[in-house]
């Protein structure tokens, strides 16, 4: 399929009002398999790209943990037993 037809097909899918579930792909073989299984769209995730390019999975956490100085206690300061 020519690139122009691919772009037009993707734009038609994205502009529709239906929910589309993409198949997770990571190489040409998985794209062919996803297409054969009936997926309309393939998704190449960031961690998959990192694994494919670097040969090592993305090991950083998606959100940095909260620093202890910014963490708040949920208990009342008057309750010394820890019960509510």
3D architecture notes:
With 84 residues, this protein is mainly alpha-helical. The chain has a domain at 23-57. 38% of the residues lie in helices and 5% in strands. It has helices at 3-15, 28-37, 46-54, and strands spanning 23-24, 42-43. Helix 2 (28-37) links the parallel strand 1 and strand 2 (42-43). The protein starts with a helix and ends in a 30-residue tail after the last helix. The relative contact order is 0.10.
Residue runs with pLDDT of under 50 for 5 or more positions: none
Care to count the β-strands?
2
How much beta, percentage-wise? under 5%
Q: How is the main sheet built?
A: 2 strands, parallel
Overall geometry? globular
Please provide the ordered H/E string of secondary-structure elements: HEHEH
Helix content bin: 25-40%
Quick check: average pLDDT? Answer: 74
Side-by-side strand order of the widest sheet? 1-2
Number of H/I helices: 3
- Could you tell me the radius of gyration in angstroms? 23 Å
CA-to-CA gap between the ends?
Answer: 65 Å
Structural class: mainly alpha
Main traits of this protein?
single chain; 84 residues; mainly alpha; two-stranded parallel sheet
Give the secondary structure arrangement, pairings included.
Layout: H1 3-15, E1 23-24, H2 28-37, E2 42-43, H3 46-54
What would you say about this model in short?
This protein is mainly α and 84 residues long. It is built from three helices and two strands.
């Amino acid at each position: 399929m020519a690139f122009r037809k691919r772009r037009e097909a993707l734009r038609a899918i994205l502009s529709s009002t239906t929910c589309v579930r993409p198949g997770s792909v990571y190489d040409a073989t998985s794209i062919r398999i996803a297409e054969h299984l009936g997926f309309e769209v393939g998704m190449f995730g960031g961690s998959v790209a990192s694994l494919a390019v670097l040969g090592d999975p993305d090991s950083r956490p998606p959100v940095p943990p909260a620093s202890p100085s910014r963490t708040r206690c949920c208990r009342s300061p008057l309750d010394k037993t820890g019960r509510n």
